[in-house]
C-alpha cells in the first residue's frame, strides 16, 4: 500500500512539473465542476414555483433581460481586466460568483435578490473569456490544439452529466428543486477550490510585455514598459496592440463573415436558452415527474455542440 501511495504521489509531482499537463488538468477539472449544474435546466420552474414565487411575466420581461444587458455592459471591461490581472484572479472570481449565484438561489427570497442574481450571473458568463484564454499563457504553442480540446470537452461533459443527473433526481428520485440547487452549490464550491490551485501565469497578451506580438522587439524589459502593471507606457502599448490586432483580424472578409455568423448564432442560442423553459412550463407544468428539461438539455449539448470536441 505504501509503495502504491508513493507511486501516485510521484506521478502527481511529475504532472505538476510538466509545462502543460498540470494547469490543463486543474483547469479541465474546474471547467467540469463549474458546468456540472443539475439545477440549471429547472431554473425557470424554480423561480416561478413556490420557492421564489415570481410571476412568469416578471421572469420573462424583467429578470432575463437584466442578464443580457448586464453581460453586454461588463464584457469588454472584463476582457481587459482578464489580461491585466493575468487570468487566474478572474477565474477565481468567476468561481466565487458562481457560488454566490447559487447561495442566492437557495437562500435569498424576493425579486430584488433575483435581480442581483442576474447581474451576478452576467459577470460569470463574461468571465468565461478567462477560462479559454488562461491556458494559452501557461502552455507551449505546440500544445494549444490539444489543451483546447480538453478544456472544451470538460465543459460539455460537465454540463451533459449535470443536466442528466438533474433529470434523474426529478424523474426517478422525486427530489425538490431546492435540494437540487443545494447539490449544485456543493459542486460549485469544489470548482472554486480548484481555481485556487491554478498556477499564476507570468505574462499576459496585452499587458506585462510584448511576447505575443511578433512585430515588436522581445528584448523590452519591465522597466521599459513603465515599471509594472500600472506603467503608462504599458497601457499605451496595450491599446496599440489591441488596435493592431483588431485591424489585422478584420481586414479579412472571410473572418468578418464568420464573426457575423458567430454573433448571430450565439445571440439566437441565448434567446432560445433564456425562454425555452417558459415554453416547456406551458406544455408540461412543473412539479411533476414528467418534466424532461434536464434530459432535453443533455441531449442538446451532445448533438448540438459535439463538433467542438
UniProtKB/TrEMBL annotation:
InterPro entries: Folate_carrier, MFS_trans_sf. One of its GO terms (cellular component) is plasma membrane. The keyword Transmembrane applies. It is a multi-pass membrane protein. SUPFAM superfamilies: MFS general substrate transporter. One of its GO terms (molecular function) is vitamin transmembrane transporter activity. The chain crosses the membrane at residues 66-86, 93-113, 119-139, 151-170, 176-198. It is found in: Membrane. Keywords: Membrane, Transmembrane, Transmembrane helix. It holds the Pfam family Folate_carrier. Belongs to the reduced folate carrier (RFC) transporter (TC 2.A.48) family. This is Thiamine transporter 2.
Amino acid at each position: 500500500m505504501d509503495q502504491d501511495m508513493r507511486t501516485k504521489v510521484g506521478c502527481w509531482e511529475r504532472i505538476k512539473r510538466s509545462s502543460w499537463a498540470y494547469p490543463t488538468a486543474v483547469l479541465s477539472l474546474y471547467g467540469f465542476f463549474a458546468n456540472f449544474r443539475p439545477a440549471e435546466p429547472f431554473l425557470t420552474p424554480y423561480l416561478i414555483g413556490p420557492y421564489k414565487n415570481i410571476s412568469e411575466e416578471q421572469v420573462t420581461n424583467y429578470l432575463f433581460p437584466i442578464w443580457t444587458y448586464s453581460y453586454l455592459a461588463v464584457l469588454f471591461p472584463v476582457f481587459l481586466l482578464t489580461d491585466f490581472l493575468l487570468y487566474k484572479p478572474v477565474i477565481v472570481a468567476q468561481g466565487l460568483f458562481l457560488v454566490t449565484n447559487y447561495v442566492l438561489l437557495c437562500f435569498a427570497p424576493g425579486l430584488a435578490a433575483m435581480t442581483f442574481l442576474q447581474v451576478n450571473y452576467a459577470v460569470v458568463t463574461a468571465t468565461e473569456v478567462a477560462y479559454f484564454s488562461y491556458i494559452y499563457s501557461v502552455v507551449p504553442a505546440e500544445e494549444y490544439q490539444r489543451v483546447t480540446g480538453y478544456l472544451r470537452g470538460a465543459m460539455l461533459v460537465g454540463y451533459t452529466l449535470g443536466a442528466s443527473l438533474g433529470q434523474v433526481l426529478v424523474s426517478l428520485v422525486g427530489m425538490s428543486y431546492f435540494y437540487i440547487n443545494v447539490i449544485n452549490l456543493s459542486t460549485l464550491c469544489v470548482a472554486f477550490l480548484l481555481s485556487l490551485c491554478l498556477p499564476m501565469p507570468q505574462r499576459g497578451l496585452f499587458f506585462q510585455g510584448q511576447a505575443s506580438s511578433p512585430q515588436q522587439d522581445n528584448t523590452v524589459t519591465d522597466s521599459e514598459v513603465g515599471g509594472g502593471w500600472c506603467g503608462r507606457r504599458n497601457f499605451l502599448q496595450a491599446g496599440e496592440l489591441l488596435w493592431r490586432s483588431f485591424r489585422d483580424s478584420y481586414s479579412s472578409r472571410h473572418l468578418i463573415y464568420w464573426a457575423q455568423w458567430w454573433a448571430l448564432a450565439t445571440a439566437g442560442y441565448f434567446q432560445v436558452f433564456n425562454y425555452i423553459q417558459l415554453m416547456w412550463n406551458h406544455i408540461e407544468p412543473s412539479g411533476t415527474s414528467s418534466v424532461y428539461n434536464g434530459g432535453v438539455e443533455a441531449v442538446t449539448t451532445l448533438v448540438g455542440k459535439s463538433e467542438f470536441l
